[in-house]
Structures are given as structure tokens and as C-alpha cells.
Amino acid sequence: MSLVKVPFGELKRNYSKIREDIDRAVAEVLSSGWYLMGNKLSEFEHNFSTACEVKHGVGVASGTEAIQIALGACGVTAGDEVITVSNTCVPTITGIESTGAKCIFVDIDTDHYTMDPEKIEKRISARTKAIVVVHLYGQCGDMDEILRIGQKHHLKVIEDCAQAHGATYKGRHVGSLGNAAAFSFYPTKNLGAYGDAGMVVTNDGEIAQRARMLRNYGQEKRYHHVVKGINSRMDELQAAILNVKLTFLNRWIERRRQIAAKYISALETLDIVLPMDAPGRKHSYHLFVMRVKDRPRFRENMSSHGIQTDIHYPVPVHLQPAYGEYRDQGVFLPVTEKQASELVSLPLYPELTDEEVDHVIRAVKESIIT
Predict the structure, then answer these.
(1) Beta-strand (E) ranges in 48-109?
(2) How far apart are CA 299 and CA 205, in angstroms?
(3) Three-class SS state of 370
(4) Do the Cβ atoms of 117 and 106 come closer than 8 Å?
(5) Global pTM?
(6) How does DSSP assign 227-279, residue by residue?
(7) What would the pLDDT profile of 85-106 be if each residue is shown by its tens digit?
(8) How far apart are CA 171 and CA 176, in angstroms?
(9) pLDDT tens-digit profile of 306-326?
(10) Residues facing residue 343 across a β-bridge
């Protein structure tokens, strides 16, 4: 009997289900002869910002540059400090450092892996200009308290929503909570392009206008450069693809939540720590991340069952070789460092079949070391 294999992700399945709609949208762009800064981008900016329940959307070339541009549009510049977390994907840090600012790390919440608001104020200095809240794995950060701290200390709050499309906080969509927000549409995201793409969203018209200039060489109008900007423009092909995929996003997230609920129901009696919806928040399950005691053995056992797992993230940013200047901040990050050795992600995407989900559950039950 052949081994049933469940890949951690398989983007071809998604494309095959909506192939006709995607191919039609791509052909329309190609035949139009207009490939940058056109109607498809304007349409997607409107549609996505409306879905986030904000007034303005500014399409850019990647989620990393969305963070850079959002911060720059909020006035962050060289020499400033930005508070964020080390338990994140490196692009969060790349976006911050691209403004010339320095990262100041705070620890994460033990249960939900997002920024611990109780740790923020001790890390604020005279140079602190902003807080970048990472909504991690599909879980929204504790925004009420973070926004309160931001307002108290006159700091801008930027949401890193790269992993949180469709998540909500007390009924409000992520991206609508801070001064501005950055989204990634990297292909593996809940809403993924077929290449790199990103967006800055905000309710502040001045921030939106600065973001539009920063993404396009700092131009207010053609050949009239008001600020020093960069080249970060979402192309028409990606905008057209994302317009199609946006119409499916809600049902894809509901399928993600169904699979997550099935995992949790079946595995909750095991000696592992499962993800959960934090109070008042709706998890969009970009990833299903749990904690196990012997991760190498667990992953080896899962592989023997044909199940591909992954780790998000095995090494916190402040311990990465490229970021040695932040290593001494580890004294503030005991939870981040401890959990980095325990976290493991199971396959979770809308195209998983019920049979595959059941196979993953059986494999987990047989792979846990007791």
C-alpha cells in the first residue's frame, strides 16, 4: 500500500480551481497594452481597502516595502527607533531598517505569540517613533492596549498584516485599527498573488498621499519629486489576479477555520499546545502553529507518515547571524527564545481534502512522544 503524502502547501491546487477566471483576467491585461499604474491597480486598491473597511489603499511591489512605505509615510526616518517583535519573518525587520530606523524588540504573549503589550513601555525611549504590531500566523495582536500606549506616548502604530488577511479584532478588520497597515500578497498568503505584491492601507488621507509618492520615486505628479522615494509599484497583472482571488477570500478563510477546528477538536487531549482564538479576535489561520516537546522527533515521525511540516520560525531575528547587533536584546525576550524551539506548523490550506485532514490527525496522534 502506497504512502499517503500531504504536502505542507500546494499552490497549483488553488490555481486549478479558479483557472478560467485567472486566465481571463491575465489575458485582459496582456491585450490591453497597459501594465503599470492602470485601471486594474486602481480597482484592486478600491476593492481591497473596502474589504478592510478603510478609506485608502496604495498598491506596492511587496509586503516588505509596504512596511517601509507605511513607516516612511508616518514620518519614521533614519535615527528613529521602532518597537516590534523578534518572533517574525525577517521581512518585517527589513522593512523597518529600510527607513534607516533601528528595531527595539519586545517579548511575545505566551499563549498567542503576538506582541505582549505589558512589555512595551519599558522599551520606549526618546528616539521611539512607532510600533509595528505583527499579526502573526493569522492571529491579531492585542490592539486596544497597544493603541492606548501609542496614543499616550505619541507613537504611530503600524500593523504588519502579512499573515492576517481576513482576521478581525472585536469585529473590526485588521488593517483598520492602527495609523496604517502593511499587507503582503506573497503567493503563500491567504490572499496571494502569482509573484510579489503588497499594499499600504489607512484611513488617513495624508498618510495615503505620502505613501503614493514614496512608492513612485517621490513624485507628486510626473517629473515633480516632492520627497525621496523608491520604485515600488504593484503591476497590473498582479492586481488583476488579486481582484479575482479577493472574491474567494472569505470562503477560503472559512475553510481554513473549519480545518483548524477539526485539528483542535481531534488533538486537544494530547500533550501539545494548540492555537486558539484570543478573546474578541477571529483567527484567519494563515498557519496552524502548535508547540511540541521534541520537535525533531515529531517532525521525523510525521515525515514517516508522508506529512510535510514546517517551522515558523526556528531562529528569532535577534539570534540570526545577519542581525548580531540585536543579540544583546535577547535579555528582554525569554518567551520568544523558549518557544522558538517548540513551534511547528501543520499543513493547512483550503484545498486540503477531508481525507488528507484525517490523515494528518492520525499521524499527529501516532507521532507525539509521550
Answers:
(1) 56-60, 81-85, 102-106
(2) 48
(3) coil
(4) no
(5) 0.96
(6) S---B---BHHHHHHHHHHHTTHHHHHHHHHHHHHHHHHHHTTSSSB---PPT
(7) 999 999 999 999 999 999 999 9
(8) 11
(9) 999 999 999 999 999 999 999
(10) 291
